[in-house]
Amino acid sequence: MNIIAAILVFGIIIFIHELGHFYFAKRAGVTIHEFAIGMGPTLFKKEKNGTVYSIRALPIGGFVAMEGEDEESDDPNSFGKKTLKERFLSIVAGPLANIILCVLLLIPFYAIVGFPTTTLDIVQKNSPAYSAGLQSGDKLVSINGNSLDSFNDVSKLISGSDGKELTIRYKRGSKDKSTTVIPEKSAGKYVIGINPKYKTDLLKAPKQAIVSTYQISKTMLIFLGQLVTGQLSGKIMDSLSGPVGVVNMVSKAATTGILDLVFMTALISLNIGIMNLLPIPALDGWRIIMLIFEGLRGGKKVPAKIEGYINGIGLIALMGFMLFITYKDIVRLFFRN
């Protein structure tokens, strides 16, 4: 049952991504041969108005096959014959749809679960905050003179402290108090050992969803930057997950409740959206770079055949990387204690 939930999650995320491409391409009048969810052998297909709609066996991707996307075409409705703006929207809509889906899923999540406030719920024993005299129920007001509107502000100021002493103003009941605390490093970031209370507020849930999406996206990009520059430790590298690992995580989330599954779906959708915006051949980000390059050259296109070869090489490289990560997933899940 959990595997079915994982497949449904992937199917929804892929469908939303490809629907973004499909909608704007169709709106521009591009000839679309196939709208596919999944890869590999076709399980189901139906043709309507010249477009084949299909579901394929492997839920690890999908595609919108547009006339003239990777080859030259004389069809006036081919992708290559459309304006730069129309092509740009058709490509960027896929990743943006995933990012928007993340926000939309986080809104009901925060509306039900609530979001972290600046009031403390737990002060961990023997932590810097505990030694500084902070207690459960204290409401943090400012750090080093910076006012605090949300717990995101608290986390940002503590993690960016570089371990230097912080002056924290807070309210305990009706009394204004102040203390100093020196953050300690844990799991690569500075912390002081506090957990916030959560508050439900339907009106603030949309804003919290947008802020969280931005914060998570920023963390993902920093992680990717460290991955490229080789700054990550071997243990973190070993924790990277591919399709098998992600299916395992989704399955576990499905066992703990619908809210955990919704949150995990939002994270995966955002991850796919961010990854597809990277300037790597075969990904949407590379096509966007090519369109920007075309615009800078005054509309002079890179030949579709050459771009097709580059994307083909990129796809082979990505598939190889995916197989490598999948192998690591299988070893980690089935052959390690």
From TrEMBL:
E.C. designation(s): 3.4.24.-
Pfam families the UniProt entry points to: PDZ_6, Peptidase_M50
GO aspect biological process, one term: proteolysis
Keyword NAD belongs to the record: no
SUPFAM superfamilies: PDZ domain-like (SSF50156)
UniProt keyword annotations, A-Z: Hydrolase, Membrane, Metal-binding, Metalloprotease, Protease, Transmembrane, Transmembrane helix, Zinc
Residues annotated as signal peptide: none
Segments crossing the lipid bilayer: 6-25, 88-113, 258-278, 309-327
CDD domains: cpPDZ_EcRseP-like, S2P-M50_PDZ_RseP-like
Residue ranges annotated for the PDZ domain, each copy included: 111-174
Assigned GO CC terms: membrane
Gene3D superfamilies, alphabetized: 2.30.42.10
Molecular function via GO: metal ion binding; metalloendopeptidase activity
Localization per record: Membrane
Needed co-factor(s): Zn(2+)
Principal subcellular localization: membrane
Membrane topology: Multi-pass membrane protein
UniProt record similarity statement: Belongs to the peptidase M50B family.
Name the record gives this protein: Zinc metalloprotease
Gene: rseP
